[in-house]
Model the fold of this input.
Amino acid sequence: MQRNPRRKKRVTLRDVAKHAGVSPKTVSNVLNDWPYVSDETRRRVQASIDALGYRQSILAASLRTGRTKTIGVVIPDITNPFFGQVVRGCEDVLYNAGYSIFLCNTNEDAAKERTYLDILANRRVDGLLLFGAHPSSEELTAAVHGEIPIVAEDSPAESDNTTVIDIDNSAGAAMAVRHLLDLGHKRIAHLGGPSERAAANGRHEGYQQALEAAGVDYDPALVIRCKPTMRGGYHAALQLLGDEQPAALFCYNDLMAIGAMVACRRLGLEIPDDVAIVGFDDIAMASLVTPILTTVRVQQYEMGRLASELLLKRLGDDEEVPGRVKVPVELIVRGSCGAKRMSSRQVSLILERLLDSDLVDLAPCESDESHIASQASCVTPDS
Amino acid sequence: MQRNPRRKKRVTLRDVAKHAGVSPKTVSNVLNDWPYVSDETRRRVQASIDALGYRQSILAASLRTGRTKTIGVVIPDITNPFFGQVVRGCEDVLYNAGYSIFLCNTNEDAAKERTYLDILANRRVDGLLLFGAHPSSEELTAAVHGEIPIVAEDSPAESDNTTVIDIDNSAGAAMAVRHLLDLGHKRIAHLGGPSERAAANGRHEGYQQALEAAGVDYDPALVIRCKPTMRGGYHAALQLLGDEQPAALFCYNDLMAIGAMVACRRLGLEIPDDVAIVGFDDIAMASLVTPILTTVRVQQYEMGRLASELLLKRLGDDEEVPGRVKVPVELIVRGSCGAKRMSSRQVSLILERLLDSDLVDLAPCESDESHIASQASCVTPDS
DNA sequence: TTGTAGGCGTTATCAA
DNA sequence: TTGATAACGCCTACAA
Done:
């Protein structure tokens, strides 16, 4: 019956109650800021708490209340700057609401994702935030038993306890490809992301649509799909550029685009003169490479905030929460597509704007007003 | 007595037991892979579990056992690629050991850090992993009540339930500065990190030591300390280069170094001809800028793994865990310090090596053998 | 090998 | 306003 004797017994709420000469409930009332506690009692209880070094067990409270104040955030890889930004957005919002985050890297592995979903459900997280997840809705539903509120980026899953955030992937991709077409490119290849990611499929569709709209035949030989990493982009580009030598590359994301740039370097191809490249996301790295990467911007941090706020609303369950929300994107024309030769001044401007992405420097709520609301749009460096 | 009637009652272990016609204990045995359960019973129980859609409550189990299988990972900012890498290392190890991670961004804010430590203690995490934390050991001790095993990077806290991981900051900094001295630079400025970070102080010391060893006077006017971000580096460099025009900049980390590069660009200064720059960490971005950043490499991912493994050992408490561990660093000489003009081939090599940092592409345990063991050393691109 | 009887530390429901 | 008492869902002795 005794616990491990090595460990001294924990101070419990009961002990505090005894010490303060009140009932357990009263201590609980003090801890939870219940209004109907006399100041005198409150002070006495607080004194006992301090004296005994009492720590409330959120565990026990959660077991009793059924709420853990805990959110599972599931992403492919925290090492990808895109998700770093997203998670930061989540954390800023959730921390202020009193939630703690379980961080889960799936590493693009469906099995690990399922396992994590399982664990999170067993840990009784109050909600789930899913980014870049595999889209199989059955999994989702099964894993969480239809009981946990979810906000998921680019998931086909449709259910009344789920909100889906749709990045405007196809529109963004179409803008990028149209831009390349406008520059006179005909042979535009696509380095696609994994087909298990809905976002990758959306961007692939946008690519096809833009070609079709321009009367250019879709050539499957110009499309390679692989892991959305620098290395993935590197190898895909190597293969593509070795074979067919397309004039332009539209990449699933910036990481792949940068990998493609490395491949071009290896092959002795000049960017943008020999090969034009466009990425997607606008991560910080995109502004650091030479030439600066033309890309389709997704407001990552804001998306994390938005997702978290939607989830919070769902948890409050007093308001009607939309089942589907669209996040706009914008084409950022820079150096790698060949639309313009960037002046040194323009480059400086871009880099200086990049400094604004240092979240640590920002006052806590400085970006409060910058919520996503605008439509997909096109921005050039001067604007 | 009834719960919220809206929510259907959860299936409990008892229900499963009843359904399977066995005792709760038996179900528990099955769940926890107790060896002495007949296959037949195990199968029956498992069938009932599936039939009822039962989910074990880790919460309740934790309350009972006193272990949550949960680790708190506290970092300044997940948006900083350095910590993204570190956290990934932690996750890879901890996931395999069955632990879930609470991710906590302190945003360089001591109050938030304290609050998080408090929450984590109340959540009864089994252990704590602290990176870039504020060094006040009293806080630590108080916050966790001396009961939670800790592994902390660069913390002065010394106690028997804490292991400290010391990055070899002063040695690394000294190597960097000596390198600049060897190149003939006399006026070497230091863009230092916040003095609340022990690592920043260590690097500052190394800077001083190297100067002293070379008989160069330490000039406080050549040192600015600020937030370890691109923006911080940018503003510090602007100030430093405006005033005194030092010949070289040694920066607390790569982010600041990159900020400094942006500042140089703005001032029309060429790197490395007008200003030589050396960073610290070797994040991916360091390989992407032009000229490529000379830096002092810290094996971030490996450090995350190491820290986690040490913590796991502490939790196993069967082995003697060291109270202090040193992590070596190495000087990576590239383009921004002016030691050499990088050939295009050399740049390609560096970039191709960068691709290896795509963790998603790696097989789960491919990097198992690459644990940190070597001494601080100096590497040039050709080696 | 399996069953029984608490108790882990809270909060909720009453009544006082 | 506060006090007793019963859950919350699981695990661990111990007995069978």
Notes: The radius of gyration of chain B is 25 Å. Confidence is low (pLDDT under 50) at residues 1-7, 363-383 of chain B.
